[in-house]
């Protein structure tokens, strides 16, 4: 059984384990509580807290998710006591001396991490706020100060907003959780960037991914595995179209959960995989679900609860529920719920998942034919303002007191200042406005006939706390109008050496003389009769003349091609 205790005012969960002792201190705060302009503050604070602890013989780490942050370790009871006591001490007195160092480490971490097929799902569903922020770089790091971090810690890292969990036989002696008083923080409401569902968006990955929002319940958890079994059978075993098939079920903390599934494909099989994937969803949606699949998934879950480590394994999820105010159940209650799930329950989840579905489909494919609506990539409205035309095409910028619109053949993009999640500002004058709906509008002063006054309107319109200063760009990476690019190429083209010019002049003169003489000889041979004994000699002279002309012209050709390269 999981025991409920209290340590220094922090709710504490204790469960027995047959392995090494492990523990975690979990707080109800994560990336979904941030704004895009301050994105990264929780992750940075986590790094600062752990940095002074250095290396140790035991394993410890921290993790920042969308709605929680955990400091955890495995080791002896004294080691756990020392670790968690130090974590709390560092939270109340932040070691900010490494602030800039840890910022650089986080930037390196982001730049070196691999991209996963599901990374962009939050952005498309939620936009550039709350639960969608996990799709974005941690742009807020640059402007964060030590005082910002202290205020963040004082608000979120408190006794009332924490849960301690321990897999072991006791609370370690000497453990002190010296945290300030505060309040339990609710999970932020999830925004939506989708006008309608089921929806889809196109992505460069060679995979089909489903994201659905369903009510959190045992039947939904079971359905995720049933869906995976159906996809595996249809796309890998029967059709041989996919290699990787996977599914997941992730509670959000607000009574809802994300249900996800993935199937990869070869480039030439993308249409077939998408069709097969949607066929499986349609099959489950109409209630064609196998009892054998339900029985197999339930049996596997029952086996998991039969292990001696069942309670210890549940501790992190148990703490998550406690922080979010969601119910926790005993193993017997969990088993009863598992056994009570019916095919009708799964059918209900399937319909719920289909109704809220967001599909990621590969480039070159579409899900319109299956009744899915394309997620918006443009805006429906424009702002009133002054028009600035592009120097190279027919696109236009409208810059006004309420926002900015970009009108082009590809559609309209509009970001109002009130709904601007963040504005990236480069020293060369470029601006990138990101709306709460994830619409991105880029302003390159080099490509539009803008005036300094126009950019001042933009800079004045976006609240200062949403402006992010970006590092200088390489001048070569700044886009330029076609005419200016051509002029620069001419100016930067290196001058020819004197011997090259002389060689090209001599080659040209020789080519003209020999080529002209050979041309006249050729014309004469064609229009004037020639003695039979002279024909072979004269035609031989023509052939030699043309060959010599080609040889004499070679220096010009080679030097010109070399310069173009």
From TrEMBL:
Residue intervals passing through the bilayer: 501-524, 536-559
Listed GO MF terms: metal ion binding
Keywords: Membrane, Transmembrane, Transmembrane helix
Matches recorded under InterPro entries: Metalloenz_LuxS/M16
Name of the protein: Insulinase family protein
